[in-house]
Specification:
By secondary structure, the protein is an alpha/beta fold. It contains 13 helices and twelve strands. The protein is globular and about 65 Å long.
């Protein structure tokens, strides 16, 4: 591999990131290297995301969080130590992330997100909001759309969690063996179209590079206009839809009940069942055992769940920057009670 092809990537960086350069190529690694990522609020999931993208060699990670490290944070944030108590959490996490990969610029920002001007968010390529108020998340998503930036929202609660993606209009390429039936440009699904197909030879193999475009919906549209899954799925398939999906729609009501100290099993059952019906799902998927698990862990983060969600989200951010592989369209669910992680287009 000639160093001239490496653009601005040094010989040491080529050696350090050799595995992913072989997977994605130098051009993709250069895009990662020049990218600026914003993490809004440090949670167990965003800890994992930050670690994964730092080790992959992104350009910069800005940690935006105005909270202070409390003793209870030590059991959630795997990098924090006793000495970090009373420090700004953004500064504490920045220190540990910098130690993971000194080549990545880590920038702590302790100003409240509400005080940031809209133009602040134009400086980033990808913005991740972790476990923040749903209305703030919607507002942030809309700002990302205004500036053409990728947005991810995530939250974990007990055994469950989700990753929501709004990449606006995202163009990417997939390289694969050429099939016997020619791939033609045009619509592939309701959200995805094939833009172009280029055939190339790789030794004895004939491959095709398929360029696609995905179109996304913002979070506020998704929440205001639930998709009727009964139109798209058979009755047997509806029964297999994860109950975490209607819980995602119920999140505003559940958090309000938690704030008002009224998060009872009966309330969870009612709100989640109503959201399931709005999605065209049978009410029976919201079982008493599921409701009990939500009640037990709603305000709790588990490191094992965060590790899975953080891995999924971190990898999708890298795929987005590399413009390779199929992105999340548009919500990935993790259900720790059944060890499943389906993706739904909603």
């Amino acid at each position: 591999m000639a160093l001239e092809q490496a653009m601005n990537i040094s010989k040491d960086e080529i050696a350090l990131y050799d595995r992913q350069i072989r997977l994605w190529g130098l051009e993709a690694q250069e895009r990662m290297r020049s990218s600026n990522i914003l993490i809004v609020h440090m949670s167990a999931v965003s800890d994992e995301v930050s670690k994964n993208i730092a080790l992959a060699g992104v350009g910069s990670i800005t940690v935006l969080d105005d909270s202070i490290v409390l003793p209870e944070h030590l059991s959630v944030h795997c990098y924090l130590q006793d000495d970090d108590v009373s420090r700004p959490i953004a500064q504490a996490m920045a220190s540990y992330l910098k130690a993971l990969n000194p080549r990545v610029s880590i920038i702590p920002d302790v100003e409240p997100i509400e005080e940031k001007p809209d133009t602040y968010f134009a400086n980033f390529d990808v913005i991740v909001a972790a476990d923040i108020d749903i209305d703030i998340m919607i507002d942030l998503n809309n700002k990302c759309r205004d500036f053409g930036k990728a947005f991810y929202g995530t939250q974990s609660f007990g055994l469950f969690g989700y990753v929501f993606a709004d990449l606006n209009e995202y163009t990417y390429s997939i390289e694969r063996e050429k099939a016997n039936v020619a791939t033609k440009p045009g619509p592939e699904t309701s959200t995805r179209s094939i833009v172009s197909v280029n055939v190339k030879r790789d030794g004895t193999q004939v491959k095709e590079v398929v360029t696609k475009i995905e179109k996304y919906k913002p979070l506020d549209v998704v929440l205001k206009h639930p998709i009727d899954l009964s139109v798209h799925l058979k009755p047997r398939q509806l029964l297999k839809v994860s109950p975490v999906l209607p819980t995602f729609y119920a999140m505003r009501g559940l958090k309000k009940a938690l704030f008002e100290n009224n998060l009872t099993r009966e309330h969870i059952q009612e709100v989640c069942t109503n959201c399931a019906r709005a999605l065209g799902l049978p009410a029976g998927i919201i079982t008493p055992s599921y409701v009990s698990n939500v009640k037990l862990g709603f305000n709790t983060e588990l490191s094992a769940v965060a590790s899975v969600l953080g891995g999924v989200l971190g990898q999708n951010i890298l795929n987005y920057l590399a413009r390779r592989e199929q992105p999340i369209q548009n919500i990935a669910i993790f259900d720790g009670s059944s060890f499943t992680a389906p993706i739904y287009c909603i």
